[in-house]
Amino acid sequence: MNAPADRAAPRPHIVFIVADDLGYADLGCYGGRDAAFGPVSPVLDALAANGLKLTQGYSNSPVCSPTRFALMTARYQYRLRGAAEEPIRTATRGNDRLGLPPAHPTLPSLLKDAGYRTALMGKWHLGYPPHFSPLKSGYEEFFGPMSGGVDYFTHCGANGTHDLWFGEEEKAQEGYLTDLITDHAVDYIDRMATGAKEQGTPFFLSVHYTAPHWPWETRDDEALAHELRESKQAIYHLAGGNVETYRRMVHHMDEGIGRIMDTLRAHGLERDTLVVFTSDNGGERFSDNWPLVGGKMDLTEGGIRVPWIAHWPVAIAPGGTSAQPCLTMDWTATMLELGGAQPHPDYPWDGQTLAPLLHDAAWTTDRPLFWRMNHRGQRAMRHGDWKYLRVDGVDYLFNLAQDERERANLAPLQPARLAEMVQAWEAWEATMPAIPGDATVSLCYTDKDMPQR
Length: 453
Ligand SMILES: [Ca+2]
What we know:
alpha/beta; binds calcium ion; 10 helices; ten-stranded mixed β-sheet; 14 strands; Alkaline Phosphatase, subunit A; about 15% strand
């Protein structure tokens, strides 16, 4: 084993990277296939090889904004009204209720209080100014879209409205959004490097790519972006895309992460920087979720199991793999703990720290994980190898160690285990606010657009 873990490591700089709708097997290091142009994700594959790869990590939700509420708060997102929307929509711009309340302690606000510099480059999707914004929730700097999805070139959202911001100022900048997010992330590290090295000031940089979310545009597809705008398809792009285009979009993000790592290296900061990579929910239509079933909006594994890669040379030994189940909010708690932050007494964390795992890939902890979706009345609970799932009123029981594809329903064979898990799920759910009657579920396509399996 190289580089034994150093438990006395000082507080790390943190670069937390989130892809949008990336599936479990889209990356080479998770079994993804090469594209016609070659390996899709060589940079992320190298980060996994030189760091820690989790095979049983989950997003807090199978859809964008609810997961981001959990990421920001280290709590189950069901506690906040805005997260009951699946997801927050562009049409709610100006709404003063659907967003992350500025008074709520957050990952960036608690790190900032603990002495970190903070910035978000990329997607926010937690409500619109003037009521909500990254700057109101603890980020000192922000560049990116406020909404859930924008065109890569026109930077217009679902209703055709321009949606690119510098702080709380809406402002245009030409370019392919994946590259612009990378540019701003690189520039931020350049600006933080002196303070980091000379004064020891740590920084927390969130890089929330919109890739590989629709519309299906690579760096070479600017003409297509203008066609889509003229034909008023906006971002949904239901008649476009293919696997090769999708893989290229993932690759552009991977190239950007390569530039971010090169920048850390050039400043001598790589060794002391924790880089975490994940996705906000499971894969969408062109994604590879193999061997999992389902995708975005589903509580089957394909909707919630996502890549989790952690790289931190001073503390994480290379080549580690962990099957420890975890949720997005656990990583929030982990980053906060590593940064020396404490929970606000009125907002205790539901997330549990994974810090010991960074020092010892064999570390495990035992606890149930829970999910709930308004869409199709879904429920899920994972505990050990077992999973309880309800979809459209039907209860299922799966042993994920034997059948992670969730095809062999054990509910009829093990009614006592099923009953125990149903009871545990209901006991957990009783501690959460009920789903409000006016919470919306927003799907951008139906069976008329795309046949379901
Ligand atoms: Ca998403």
